[in-house]
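Before any further analysis, we paired sequence with structure tokens, yielding the entry below:
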Amino acid sequence: MPEVGYSANPLPTRKGLPLFTIEVRDHIMIAHSFRGAMFGPAQALHGATFVVDAAFIAETLDGNGIVIDIGRAHDALRAVLAPLNYRNLDEMPELRGVNTTTEFLSKYIFDGLAGPARAGELGRDGQELKAIRVTISESHVARAQYEAPLW
């Protein structure tokens, strides 16, 4: 059995080893509307404040004892969120015609973070990172997540 150190996230990997996670948080205030009768009153333009958590996941810590540089992680999240903040998402050309559900936005934000992570811009060789998980909280009782491997 391999020797395992402390883990911030005890979920097993395919190898049976624990994972380390560093998570940063920010928020955005947006307006949007949905298409489809299932959305009821949310078909009308409405506002939302979302708390966004981005977790960066690795099987090991680097030589400094970290997953990634937490400051760079927060800067990357802030950069991905900035174009969305205080915006009507219905008016953004790249989102026009899309139901910008919490689930959709969690994948959208993941995609924005995956590039810098893979490129090693977060203070660690991107090949050493396993996955990213994005959680968007709509309120204290509802949230959505998107998690995927980087490679």
Remarks:
- The CA atoms of residues 131 and 149 lie 4 Å apart.
- The longest helix spans residues 102-118.
- The helical segments are 70-81, 102-118.
